[in-house]
Amino acid sequence: MKLGIVGLGRMGGNMTERLRKGGHEVETYARTAPERTADSLVELAMKLEQPRIVWLMIPSGAPTEMAIQTLLPLLEDGDILVDGGNSNFRDSIRRAGEARAKGVSFLDAGVSGGIWGLAEGYCLMVGGDETAFETVEPILTTLAPEGGYARVGPSGAGHFVKMVHNGIEYGLMQAYAEGFELLREIDGFELDLGQIAALWRNGSVVRSWLLELLQRAFEEDPGLEQIRGFVQDSGEGRWTVHEAVDAAVPMPAISAALFARFASRQDESFAAKVNAALRNQFGGHAVEAAKAAAQGKPGK
After folding, report:
1. Catalytic residue flag (residue 162)
2. Partner of 81 at 20 to 30 A CA spacing, among 7, 71, 116, 291?
3. Residue 292's pLDDT band (boundaries 50, 70, 90)?
4. What's the whole-model pTM score?
């Protein structure tokens, strides 16, 4: 099949390569990528024949919104627009309605697989019109491993499932992080963390691909000394917790994992200072002096 891909970053670039290896003809556009085949979204649309298929692999939020609003006037009845980024599912529902009003089909595709997707394939969670899904299915078959793609529901369902997927990922990663910290800190054993990660990959009930990646990380840097313990989040964990609150669904593990990421970004916790001050005030417990004078935020 012939399609256009917008975005040639770590995901979009590898997906393009996998599709071309699979026999598909791919036109590409990215603002800063020299290997692009089109210099604008307008030119990209002109390079495609109807029914056009345009797949976005760009950051969620304003970049995706701008691309969609630019593309919709360029597309015609029967064309298909796929958002493969990590957009909020509520935005995807709205965008599907806007596309439908113009006769364009919109699919929201949650994509998982990271930098390994080129070789291993991508897990694809697709929401939207069933006919449009069937049209792009040859593309999905090439991108995914066997059993690795599905239409999970109507518009918005793909990005909703991917959002929850990423929330679960937060919880799994935090559980491994806490467990391996305890293994490292226990006195008297001097455990080889890489050895344990490798051991648990074979027959253990906690075996997983994440554990395989952790073993690889320990092989490259046994003490993780080259990595700062600063953990960013890209939004899906926050959205998952927000939706859980709205639906009154208890989600303590994922919520705690999200807050642990926030805590990782603090050089020193003001909340911990409050705790220490209170213990000193009510019980006379000793406090440790600050290492340096606080910088900025004097009254915040």
Report:
1. yes
2. 116
3. low
4. 0.90
